[in-house]
Amino acid sequence: MRTLYTEGLDGDGFVNICEEILSAFYKSKTKRPYLYENESTDFLILGKDHISVLCLPPAKAPIGKTAIEKFYLAMKNKRVKEGIIVTNGRFATTAQKYVEDSNIPITLMEIEKLASVAFKAGIKLVYKKEEPEAYILMKNSDREFREHLSKKLKNSIKCTDDIALNLSIVKRDISLVLFYKIDYSVNAEFEASKKIIHKESGEGSCYISERYSKIMDDEFIEIYDMVPKMAYEPKGKEADLMKPRKQILDVLYDRVIEKHTKYIPIKTGPDKIVNKKCAPSKKDIIVQNVTCLFVPLSDTEYEMFGRKRTIQSLESGTENFFALEPKWLVCDVCDKKITGDIFLCKKCGKMTDDKHTAICSRCNTILCTECSLFISKFLGKNEPICPSCAEKEPGLKIKGNK
Fold first, then answer.
1. Which of 64, 198, 307, 312 could be cross-linked to 92 through a Cys-Cys bond (beta carbons 3.0 to 4.6 Å apart)?
2. Would you say 67 and 85 are in contact if contact means Cβ atoms under 8 Å apart?
3. Distance CA 338, CA 316 (A)
4. Which residues touch 46 (CB under 8 Å, ≥6 apart)?
5. Is the pTM of the predicted complex or chain greater than 0.90?
6. How far apart, in Å, do the first and last CA atoms of the chain sit?
7. Residue 354 and residue 368: Cα distance in Å, rounded?
8. Where is the Restriction endonuclease type IV Mrr domain (predicted)?
């Protein structure tokens, strides 16, 4: 069952939700705008007997007889036999009495009744301050984290000795950070010269960081897309969540609009074709479901081959985790980002790039250029050799590091 929210919606957003719920309930397509050509608050549920729907926002005063009379007159002018007025406000106590006494074929639907209709259509409508579905991922123990970290480093770094045997956790602080998984649908039509030139529809989901208001990349999604199945639901304060703030939803809208914007070629003259930008607006996007995911964030200080380092990472309850900082590894000799293979010096523990790595020509021990010795060769070429192998071959013309 998917979930729709009314909180924070503008008038167009409320119309979108009403349209989706009622079209699902009646299993019928809709058409809008219909009754009032200068407004977009009405749509028609298509069927053997069409149903006209009017959506009204909350007002200072409850909706009374005047609004019903106006709507009924418009229905008769369009020869529509049945109508529905939906509001997330209130009807006056006299409104229902007027409809019943006058035998008018209009259903008055406040938000609670709309939620009931939605439930019958397989949709959960959240109209009160209700919390989204939430999960907390299990935290790893220090032992588990050390195993996962050593495996990740082992897969990323070339080293002569076993990293796991030379790795220890010095300090590890754990906190929970919130991510939203927001499922959405988009449905938009675009016209030119009163003709529909493009229909854009689709659905999808985004993971958004609450802390940074940032959409997470494919690596994050690959790790965390299925994690709710292995997580536990939060209790107490942990479950006291707020729905996504406006800034989070704006991030979603911007991404969806960018993803679903198309440029459609249209003919504007005998020999002229231009590309018309067809970009959906916020009112074309419906948030279908929100899942809150609390992920353990580890700020860890560790020691590897005698050198202390730090890593900030998100855990997943499995051996997979997502590194936040450092985003990339830096050569400890030149302080530049390593773009190719990463090497680890056995002697001093420095991480180096290919340029500042020396592999012993005798035993293939990996050292940095500052710890390696070099055998002088002809034409100024130097051959790396580790100190241990150099001792075994007295008489070599040895020079210090480069």
1. 64
2. yes
3. 26
4. 28, 29, 30, 31
5. no
6. 66
7. 9
8. 11-116
